[in-house]
Amino acid sequence: MNASNDTPRHDPTRKRLLQAALEIFADKGFRDATVREICARAEVDVASVNYHFGSKEALYSEVLGFAYREASERYPYTKAGDKSLPPEVRLRHFIGNLLGRMLDDTYLGRHGKLLARELADPTPTGALDQVIETTMKPHCELLDGIVAELVGPGYSEADMHRLGLSVVGQCLMYYHSRSLIDRVYPEIIATPEDIERTAEHIARFSIAALKHLHLEKPAPHRAG
Fold it and tell me: Average pLDDT of 164-177?
């Protein structure tokens, strides 16, 4: 049995290792980060990774889950998942939280950087599959459900996925093109308040399009 199985998740050494590994993995990626560098940053013995996690690969998997959980604690999807609220309100909360976590300038910004790196170039650890299944997939299903309420019946499951990704794609534009936006249109994401206004713009734009689709007859599905 690995010692990590008997180590409390709130152990301070374990937490320092996760924080240090998050910073280094986000900056360097899995392949270029070293256990020695992570332990030096955490100010712990180099054997600590093996004791608490078993391997560098296992540490990386834990870090990805840790990063997503911390971001979700700061930007929860609680209201987006509250089915007692109108879908328009739920979508606004979903978009606001998604854009907020993507553009967070605090240490949480490393979470988005690490996840973006892993999505663009998945490591052979299988960590991405685990995070997708346990955290990202439920959020995608939540968004699909909100979209389905707004467009109404007649659209396929694949339609819901496309529409949901269209909403997410607008948010990703601000993340991946931030260096351009900061130089050309800095005022639209310069402060948390500006980010909120941009999130509201994305929400209004998306809701208007989805409600238009609600009034339209769905396009016929062609085989192949």
Answer: 95
